[in-house]
Amino acid sequence: MTVSYLIYKLILVLIVFVISLFVAMYSTYAERKVAAFMQDRLGPNRAGPFGILQPLADGIKMFMKEEIIPNVSNKFLFILGPSLSMLTACMTSVVIPWGTQLTINGKPYPLQITDVNIGILYLFGVVSIGVYGIMIGGWASNNKYSLLGALRASSQMISYEVAMGLAIIALVMMTGTLSLKEIAAQQNGWRWNVFYQPLGFLIFLICAFAETNRAPFDLPECETELVGGYHTEYSSMKLGFYLFAEYINMFISSAIISTFYFGGYNMPCLGRFVHDPNMLATLGVVFMFAKIFFFIFFFMWIRWTLPRFRYDQLMNLGWKILIPLSLINIVLTGVFILRQDIIHYFIK
Amino acid sequence: MLTNRSKIVAKKELSLAEKLYFPAILAGMAITLKHFFTKKVTINYPEQKREHSKVYRGQHVLKRDEIGAERCTACGLCALACPAEAITMTASERKPGEEKLYREEKYASVYEINMLRCIFCGDCEEACPKEAIFLTDRIIPSNYERGGFVFGKDILVEPVNDRVDVSLRQTEEVREFKKNKNYAHNI
Ligand code: SF4
Ligand code: SF4
After folding, report:
1. Which residue of B25, B41, B44 is in closest CB contact with A40?
2. Which residues lie closer than 8 Å to A119 by C-beta, 6 or more apart?
């Protein structure tokens, strides 16, 4: 590990970090635009041309707001909550392969911060820490709405994590690896996992919605019953952090969905037109982001289409439908993988 | 059952397709996507303006007469007629030599309408015996301060060289009404 390698990694980390923040920032803008367009409105269009400076204006507004920490709250935990949310949201991006690798002066520069060979486990570990951010924030506020919101959020996230994990197990059985780099690399050409794992993809997608706390699963911040939910007591930039973390999560979820099921940076037929490997890698990154943006749009599209679930429906869906379905999916995948042996067994 | 209007609620079982939600979700998504591309109904206000009716009741104007003298005589009838108590004024006596400025020997040295109180009913213009106050189709601009909504004579009185056309508001009925001597203020 040379110094130049370290510097390269450092730069990559910075770039990924900045890009996540930037995408999250503009997701807030996109969300408002998509919402407006779907409701036959125009959305923000005053700050800068087409309103593209709106996120900046929102950010400045957030910073200028009065910072209120309730007297009865636990100060340390109150601040820890949003920080943890933000931290875990940013941490997941390390294992995502944004592209193959660039070769400069004969040296390979992989476009992934680190290829942990247990990447999927790492992902799940970090995602489940994310629950604590919300839970601690809700609990530390010392407010019953916050507490109820936090309880809801944590039970929802824990329930859906199970189904999500089971859906991923089927994927791992197929690909035979836990490393995201290899999963992405295996899906070259048209061999995208979504064609082999349609059910698993569906389950994963639904769970991703629940994990990011977005409509139709936005129970934790149910305005009609819980005021703001777990962030009722939050103000200023701490509130901003919570909201921002949601958008970073959305970005990362989209990236993970693209990597797991939609071939990541692979684009079929691209190799036939472009031969330069560096060019190919760059285009791969572009396609990766195209897929990510599509899924971000998809998240918003769903949000502005579907109403919210009732809480018991949410739990029913999670435990009684998605988990059995994902178990069936595992069995089916197993049968599919061992089909040769099974046929052999019966014919013999 | 007494009125025979009770209805039995039909609680029909959902079919499999309905239970799966997906057809309904896809249909919903198709609808939102269609709206995504339809023409937007928003009017970008300061640049574009919605068409008003010709007799829209907006910001008031205090009229001048043909030679440019203010018509208002500070009789206070508009303030009396105003249901929102939006109008206040101070009357002053015209000095010799000011005949070109004020039509009558009494005039309003201060005339203020609080646009936050005003409900744009138009009673003031109906009450005015001197054809001095009219509502126009102009919209009250927004303001950050409450004080900014109290419009004084500097805003209300029409400029001499830039008269506000109110002919459309003087319908036959209004003119007939102004001639009716049964109403005290028309005498
Ligand atoms: S329009 Fe009506 S409310 Fe407004 S000032 Fe005239 S009388 Fe008063
Ligand atoms: S009623 Fe007419 S003349 Fe009398 S004070 Fe009002 S605007 Fe002036």
Report:
1. B41
2. A95, A178, A179, A180, A181
Helix residue ranges, H only, chain A = 3-38, 54-64, 75-91, 119-140, 144-175, 180-186, 193-196, 198-211, 223-226, 236-261, 270-273, 277-303, 311-316, 323-337, 339-347
Look up the ipTM and state it: 0.76
Q: Closest Cα to residue A283, out of A295, A271, A292? A: A271
Q: Please tell me if the CB atom of residue B128 comes closer than 6 angstroms to any atom of ligand 2.
A: yes
Distance B155 CA to ligand 1 centre (A): 16
Express each pLDDT in B73-105 by its tens digit. 999 999 999 999 999 999 999 988 888 888 888
The closest residue, in CA terms, to atom 3 on ligand 1 is B118
- Name which residue leads in pLDDT, B67 or B178: B67
Distance, CA of B94 to CA of A228 (rounded, Å): 63
Residues of chain A numbered 289-318 and touching chain B (CB < 8 Å): 301-302, 304-306
**Whole-Å CA distances, B140 to A36, B115, B118:** 27, 8, 11
Residue A306 has its nearest CB partner, among B25, B40, B44, at: B25
A306 and B40 within 8 Å at the Cβ level: the answer is no
3-state helix, strand, coil in chain B (%, to 5): 30, 15, 55
| CA A331 and chain centroid, separation | 27
CB A281 within 8 A of CB A61: no
The C-alpha atoms of residue A204 and residue A211 are separated, in whole angstroms, by 10
Q: Which residues pair with B42 in a beta bridge?
A: none
| Nearest Cα residue to A200 out of A116, A128, A262, A292 | A262
Euclidean distance between CA atoms A141 and A72, whole angstroms = 8
Residue B90 is predicted with a pLDDT of 93
A86 or B171, which is more confident: A86
Q: In what order do the strands lie in the sheet with B106-114?
A: B87-93, B106-114, B150-151
Above 90 in pLDDT, residue B117?
yes
Whole-model pTM: value is 0.79
Does B44 sit within 8 Å of A304, measured CB to CB?
no
How far apart, in whole angstroms, are the C-alpha atoms of residue A328 and residue A107?
46
| Rounded-to-integer distance, Cα A2 and Cα B5, Å | 85
Token representation of residue A103: 């070769």
Name which residue sits closest to atom 2 of ligand 1, judged by CA. B121
SS3 A230: helix
Least reliable range by pLDDT among A268-277, B15-24, B42-51, B141-150? A268-277
Yes or no, beta carbons of A305 and B29 under 8 Å apart: yes
- Give the pLDDT of residue B120: 92
- Round to the nearest angstrom and report the end-to-end CA distance of chain A: 55
Taking the Cβ of residue A40 and every Cβ of chain B, the question of whether any pair is shorter than 8 Å is answered with: yes
**Which residues have CB under 6 Å of ligand 1?**
B 81-84, 86-87, 113, 118-124
